[in-house]
Amino acid sequence: MSTIRDEEILALIADKSFQERDIGDTERALQAPTPLELIEWLGQSIWEDKGKYTALALAYVDARFMQNRLDEVCGIFNWQSDVRSEAGLIILGISIRDPKTGEWITKWDTGQDKARELMDDSGFGGGRGTFSQSFKRACYQWGIGRDLYSLPKPRCRCNAKRSKKTNKLNFNGWIDLPDEKMAESEETGRPHKSKVDDPTDHLPAKATTFYAIAYNKMKIDRDSARQALSPFIDKGTGEIDYAKAITSLEKNLPPEERLFTIQEKKREEREKDAQSNSNQE
Questions:
Q1: Co-location of 207 and 255 in the same domain
Q2: Which residues share a beta bridge with 52?
Q3: C-beta atoms surrounding 263 within 10 Å
Q4: What secondary structure letter does DSSP report for 96?
Q5: Is the whole model's pTM more than 0.85, yes or no?
Q6: Same domain? 48 vs 78
Q7: Domain range holding 230?
Q8: Could you tell me if 73 and 143 are in contact, meaning their C-beta atoms sit under 8 angstroms apart?
Q9: H/E segment holding residue 224
Q10: Lowest CB count within 10 Å: 2, 62, 190, 240, which one?
Q11: Are both 29 and 41 inside the same structural domain?
């Protein structure tokens, strides 16, 4: 799957205003591939074998990405959402104004069944979860994020906890990052945002970790994240020192939340202990 950046999306629509554009131009821009750094991975179909767990990694994106894509391509006044209740299901529609006729075109979907499926002891899948799933599925109808369905679904090692209420295994973070299981593909993604017990094996020095911290912990936008990354890009080779970039980014977090920095210190301590033991032998 080829990547596409913001400037390439804008190039599809830059020559004409929304009103001058054909609906086909808008559709093609909406259906542009999902930025790789925004892809996340949800753990499903958890298996247990001798106390170790694996899960299928399903690619997905946050609903905010889809909102931003609609704003960027259509403009904030040319799309809207609507919610209905039919047959006990929440139905959500995304409407986009036809640039030629001004007519509103709506595509509908529901995420209620999916939200129920994902519900666990933490209550995920309640009202907000249902709305978010419905919104994203309606966006898929317009082609936003639909490319995620074509990505591989690798089975990766993960952490899991068994529910005391249902005895069901609930996903609790990746041990092997899904993008590292996709050696035959160029697609990469960020670690899932679920809480993990020990960060040591979950935060590699790469783009996935940098953007996870920038977006999830620091709540900064994409432009600010890229600006924070720029000092660590080698102008000659284009290579990025993600370890230094992540460490620099985490200086803005409380000490106990600097997970990458903590894990690096733990690694240094283990290496020193190993070296010390080797010298004693």
A1: yes
A2: 49
A3: 19
A4: E
A5: no
A6: no
A7: 198-281
A8: no
A9: helix 222-229
A10: 2
A11: no
Last residue of a domain, one of 108, 125, 144: 144
Question: Rounded to whole angstroms, how far apart are CA atoms 277 and 279?
Answer: 5
pLDDT per position as a tens digit, 138-169: 999 999 999 888 888 888 888 898 888 888 88
Do 128 and 13 share a structural domain? yes
Distance of alpha carbon 245 from alpha carbon 101, whole angstroms: 48
Considering the domain architecture, whether residues 202 and 95 belong to the same structural domain is answered as no
**Residue burial 9-46, b: 16+ Cβ < 10 Å; e: rest:** beebbeeeebeebeeebbeebbebbbbbbbbbbbbeeb
Measured CA angle at 254 (ends 249, 259), to 5 deg: 65
Residues 13, 138 within the same domain: yes
**Which ranges in 43-87 belong to alpha helices (H)?**
63-74
With H, G, I as helix, E, B as strand and everything else as coil, classify residue 69: helix
Number of independent structural domains in the chain: 3
**Which of 161, 191, 221 is the last residue before a domain boundary?**
191
Residue 274, burial from CB neighbour count under 10 angstroms (0-12, 13-18, 19+): exposed
pLDDT in tens, 79-111: 999 999 887 788 999 999 998 889 999 999 987
Burial of 95 per CB tally in 10 Å (0-12, 13-18, 19+): middle
Q: Report the C-alpha gap between 172 and 164 in whole angstroms.
A: 15
* pLDDT category of residue 21 using cuts at 50, 70 and 90: confident
Secondary structure E strands in the chain: 40-49, 52-60, 79-86, 89-97, 104-109, 155-162, 169-174
